[in-house]
Amino acid sequence: MTTSHALDPFAPDSPTHSGGAADGQSVIRGEYGYAVLDFALATTVLRDMRFVNAALTLMEQFGITDGPVHDFRARSLIMAEGARHIRLRTPLARFMGPTMVEDIRVELRTILADIDPGGRSDGPVDFNETVARKIPARVYCLLAGAPAEDAPLVARLSAGTLALLQRDPSLKDSILQSYDELFAYLTSLIARKREQGLGNDMLSFLIGQEIEGKLDAEELLSEATAMLEASSVNTSHQTALVVWTLLRERETWKRLQEDRSLVPAAVVEACRLYPRPGIVSKIASEDIDIAGTTVPAGSDVHVAVWSANRDPERFPNPDAFDIDRERVQPLTFSTGLHGCLGQSLAKVEMEEVVGFLLDRYPDATVVDEGTSIGHAGGRWLVDSLAVDLGPARAGRSVAEATP
Ligand code: HEM
Questions:
Q1: Percentage of the chain surpassing pLDDT 70?
Q2: Ligand 1: does its nearest atom lie under 6 Å from the Cβ of 332?
Q3: Does the beta carbon of 78 lie inside 6 Å of ligand 1?
């Protein structure tokens, strides 16, 4: 392993490194700590539970060292390990299983028909603002059993709390404020549900777990909070990135129109090339040997997903968009016991947005002017996505929609 100042995984130009090991090095070291670049080693690190989530350390570096927000993070699902992690995660993961996800797919078609951005303007629409930013928070409301009118608040709180990952200490106060607001919102929603009676939604499920003595009240709030913060901001950026990619791959777009069963593979391939969470940061909980080097306890270890996802050893011709490649899941949703709990749901959201465009606006194209997409702090970011929707195809009914 070498010390490299040439490749900073957080630098805006980092994707100019083509992916995989750099000069034969799978791990590099810089002022930021260690960066893991190739797919095989990245997978190993993400599956090694001695590397723990970096979010608590990040908060502490911001000066949030005690109080309710620090306590929430310290005791949350993402910091839990071993038996406690299994106890917190397994029931929720079962709840998030295929039946629930497919039920949401059906509801999503109604939501998309409802927010259809066409017909409101003659020129291009900002697809990011009108669709991608709206869908995930609407889905969280559906999942949690919250009123649909709460969606703008959910979107704002998800973005406000996960701003932590921007690694900008000047955001400390607004992050704390977002968490306070989020705790107050969920506390009152949970209280209302207790009063009004439980349903089939996620909050009712978690309250049921508490009634059965499987969670305490603090864990119930913590699980609901972890799901809300993770639900929206990443999914909306990733949805816009997927649409931006697929609308520019015209050959693929044509194939998708002819064969909708290819949509899931197309979504995964777009997520591989442009992963919103381009870096998943961990902390070594003890001295750990990786690629022949001992990483000391307490070190920052950043898994460079954007690099691993373009590792030529794993994905031949890695910069090419190819929906026919051998199906290896990229690391966009991480992997291992802490891998994304909402990934099936997020994929369904993206598949349905793509299906909506294919059905309703098959001639849609990206307009470069008015589109602003960049890479910062290791993550792909979408500010705006101008889309010329073209003529609307009439008569897309919810029942007819694909797949
Ligand atoms: C495209 C959208 C999404 C992306 C790219 C994404 C990605 C990720 C990543 C990279 C992690 C970190 C895993 C690790 O630390 O190793 C994660 C964790 C998590 N995600 Fe997602 N996520 C998305 C959407 C969602 C949604 C929609 C939900 C829930 C509604 C969700 C819930 C969670 C939870 C609860 C965790 C923590 C799991 C644990 O620590 O056991 N995510 N996600």
A1: 94
A2: yes
A3: yes
Question: How many folded domains does the chain comprise?
Answer: 1
Tell me the per-residue pLDDT of 95-131, one tens digit each, with 9 for 90 and over. 999 999 999 999 999 999 999 998 556 789 999 999 9
Note the pLDDT of residue 400: 47
CATH number assigned to the domain comprising residue 285: 1.10.630.10
Q: Is the CB of 151 under 6 A from ligand 1?
A: no
List the residue whose alpha carbon is closest to atom 27 of ligand 1. 231
Note if the bond before 403 is cis, omega within 30 degrees.
yes
Instruction: Specify the residue with its C-alpha closest to ligand 1, atom 19.
Output: 340
Pocket of ligand 1 contains residue 76 by CB under 6 Å: no
Report if residue 240 sits inside a domain. Answer: yes
Which atom of ligand 1 approaches the CA of 238 most closely?
1
- What is the pLDDT confidence band of residue 396, given thresholds at 50, 70 and 90? low
Q: Tell me, in angstroms, the distance from the centre of ligand 1 to residue 257's CA.
A: 30
Whether 397 maps to a domain, the answer reads no
Q: What is the mean pLDDT of residues 1-25?
A: 70
Q: What would the mean pLDDT of 9-28 be, rounded to a whole number?
A: 80
Is there a domain that residue 276 lies in? yes
Is the model's pTM score more than 0.85?
Answer: yes
Nearest CA to ligand 1 atom 34: 341
Provide the domain limits for residue 296.
Answer: 2-315+331-388
Closest-CA residue, ligand 1 atom 1, reads 235
Please state the rounded mean pLDDT for residues 24-40. 92
- Residue 127 is which amino acid? F
Q: Considering only CA atoms, which residue is closest to atom 22 of ligand 1?
A: 340
